[in-house]
Amino acid sequence: MRFAFFGDVVGxxxxxxxxxHLPALRRELQLEFxxxxxxxxxxxxxxxxxxxxxxxxxxxxxxxxxxxxxxxKEALTYIVREPRLIRPANYSEFSDVPGRGxxxxxxxxxxRILVVNVLGRVHMDALxxxxxxxxxALESAPLGMVxxxxxxxxxxxxxxxxxAMGHFCDGRASLVVGTHTHVPTADGQILVGGTAYQTDAGxxxxxxxxxxxxxxEPLRRFTTRIPGGRYKPAEGPATVCGVFVExxxxxxxxxxxxxxxxxxxxxxxxxxxxxxxxx
Length: 279
Description:
CATH class: Alpha Beta
Radius of gyration: 17 Å
Structural class: alpha/beta
Helix content: 25-40%
Number of domains: 1
Shape: globular
Strand order of the largest sheet: 5-4-3-1-13-14
């Protein structure tokens, strides 16, 4: 199976960048499924039905969220109606949070892919154990038996917590990928048990910025400790960052992981994708 995961879409720039580049990427890489983290899609904070529709229209099959899931209040009702929108799975079962933390999708060709989203706990909101939540999701749709592919989006601050999740899922997931820090890491690899892993997919955002935000306000706060307003997404051309994964058709484990970085400021620093598509 051939699929791609794209990191946090930040504001209009990220949405427009994905709309510009994703259709061609789907064709060139022969993608069967596309997952996008969209928790910053609406002006940098949360998601709305309108911004979600833009991403679905661009070619996304599933949207994952994170710590900004509910910044836009309409998300609380929209997620009930939209099964392609996945929020963190490790909310307490007693918290009455709407939506779902994982879902098993079927492609037009009949392949099944499980998508799981969890929120880390190190320097993040205090939710339930993400490892226990992922374990339950993996047991509900085992790789190679129920699911042809399994993707875990670990939305977390600490690289160590993301790496730990990768090894925890090794051999049971096709891909474990980190989101939230908006900077693409250079550690894409296939772990010993066959799970593809990257600490952070990066962001779909203008990288002439501070993690996708206009530079002035973050610099003011770092240098003076005095806030002068709210953060606003940078508005220049976005670099679309993510990972491409190809799995073994029998086991669902990874046999290739490659970075995706097109457009904007970062794309010239990595190998061109036509090499991946041609192999």
